[in-house]
Design brief:
Blueprint: H1 4-21, H2 26-35, H3 40-64, H4 70-93, H5 96-115
Helix pairs in contact: 1-2, 2-3
Amino acid sequence: MENIGVGIALGLVIGILSRIFGVSGGVFAVPLLGLLHFDEHLAQGTSLVMQLPLRIVGLWQYARRGTLDRRLVILLAVGAIPLTYVGATAATYMPAALLRRAFALFLVLLASYSAW
């Protein structure tokens, strides 16, 4: 992204929305980066790297207020870490068009679940 101001503004919007709604910033970042003509793999990879500082700040805020189940966090991480590697590896081998459609389907399913 050539325009630093656009990048910072996008980061601010994604950071605020992801923390307000308690979802991954990728739910917002991937579609927004797609609108900026990022290849699907680049959009998802950029979104994943961007998540680290968001997660650290979110973890700190919830832990500080005592609204975090630390045992559950550890249990989820034990399963998520190795399977994240598997999922990321699979995604890098998928054609960009298929990956984009799969992500769109995920968003539709997420929206359908949230509507209930």
